[in-house]
Amino acid sequence: MTDHTIAAISTPYGKGGIAVIRISGETTSDVIDKVFVPKGKTVPKASPRTAVFGEITEADGTVVDTGVCVFYKAPASFTGEDTAEISCHGGVLVTRRVLEAVFSAGARPAEPGEFTRRAFLNGKMTLTEAEAVGLLLDADTDSRMKLASSGTRGVLSEKLSLIGDRVSAVLSNLFALIDYPDEDIDEVGAERLSTELITAAADAEALSATFRTGRAVAEGIPTLICGRPNAGKSSLYNTLSGEDRAIVTNIPGTTRDVLEDTVDCGGVTLRLFDTAGIREAGDEVERIGVARALEKMEAAELILAVYDGSAALTDDDKALISKIANRTEGRDVYTIAVVNKADMERALTKEDEELLCRMHGCVIGLSAKTGDGLDILRNKVAELYGLGEIKIGEDAVVWDASRKAELDLASALLREAAALLAAGEPEDVVCSTAELALGAIRRTDGRGVSEEIVNGIFKRFCVGK
Ligand code: GDP
């Protein structure tokens, strides 16, 4: 149990129809008694989970507002503690006054993420589910929301738990053999346990392999839009971001700085950079823009190289192709040649077409002006990041690097334990390796992780969550 009763405004700051003040902790019902006067016979603490209408008062009896209070009796609440939610009118001042009344009645201000942190500490949710709550609050694309929502529903936690339980069952068997050495393990028994360990390792590996897709959705892929001036980079950027952010003109060299936006492309989150057209000419400002564009190329994992399909490739286009080749060499970068202006007659020469095919992962013809061909680009990006095989929102998907690292460690240890068992090594040696693997799996769900890590995770939340 945690020390003190906490309170915060759980709705966003600012004027709204209603605001919700959340209170959680052992003395919640005392706090409610002091600030909330029911208008009928129903009293919140005597009728958990019931919306009770009443007046919200300050310590001297001044009525601040009327509103609704719902009391949740521990452990049947979000945090697992006694909790109450007071809904009042959503004016900035009135909400503040209600919160202050709650503080005067004995609650202290909640820290960022403290309600969710308490829920985790009280076993109401796993760390994975709590992190998914954070992802859900930040979700700004459909895929991110689906991924987060499956996380909060425990889809990933359940899978992690199944893998852990399989290893745990093998360990119980092995411990029994250590405790009763007369019951020597026969070959069939050893083979069965070894198969179980290998199955658990394969499950951990399969889950770890979803990280590439999970990261592409949750964190996003740094993506560069580049090309010579007037190829249609800004038009593509605007079409993908669904807004007129970049200036589109037929004057070469208009975009001089790097624009950034996060967009959904076939379910993948692209952290999109629109850059200055890359060419040799131009004034000082344009040259700085070009230098920045080239810098971004080094950080990009996906490059959309835009070409004007209504004309043959120019020297600037060809120079760009070699710059991309130089700057991406030896790195895991995928480049897509976007042959733009498909609404006009395609004027690339046969050599141009061959060059684009040779130098890029794939070539897609589209029109940033009409939107024709955008679906092909979206499907390609989705395919690149595994969104065909993995169903976001339904399948268990890992989206953070630390969880993937624990799974990789676990699978290596499980394979080692299986090999030791097959080689006839003593059970206690197999056990200690399998136990290390189990520790890594359990850590993915927050069991046994250090307080520092837990605190770090919840600090990223907002107050009131
Ligand atoms: P950037 O310099 O590469 O960013 O190119 P812009 O997006 O500013 O476009 C340059 C010019 O090409 C503008 O006049 C656009 O209207 C035009 N443009 C861009 N995309 C298309 C397209 O798909 N079809 C046609 N017909 N014109 C386009």
Task: Provide a compact summary of the structure.
The protein is an alpha/beta fold.
Give me the secondary-structure topology.
Blueprint: E1 6-9, E2 18-24, H1 28-35, E3 36-38, E4 52-57, E5 63-72, E6 83-89, H2 92-104, E7 108-109, H3 114-121, H4 127-138, H5 142-152, H6 155-179, H7 187-208, H8 211-218, E8 221-227, H9 233-241, E9 259-265, E10 268-274, H10 284-299, E11 302-308, H11 315-328, E12 334-340, H12 350-359, E13 362-365, H13 374-384, H14 401-422, H15 427-443, H16 451-459
Parallel strand pairs: 1-7, 8-10, 8-11, 11-12, 12-13
Antiparallel strand pairs: 1-2, 2-6, 3-4, 4-5, 5-6, 9-10
Helix pairs in contact: 1-2, 4-5, 6-7, 6-15, 7-14, 14-15
This protein binds guanosine-5'-diphosphate (GDP).
The average pLDDT is 88
Would you report the number of β strands? 13
- Structural category is alpha/beta
Strand fraction: 15-25%
| Biggest sheet features | 7 strands, mixed
Bound molecules: guanosine-5'-diphosphate
Low-confidence stretches: none
Helix fraction, binned, reads 40-55%
Overall 3D geometry? flat
Order of helices and strands: EEHEEEEHEHHHHHHEHEEHEHEHEHHHH
Descriptive key words:
465 residues, alpha/beta, 6-stranded mixed beta sheet, 13 strands, 17% strand, flat, binds guanosine-5'-diphosphate
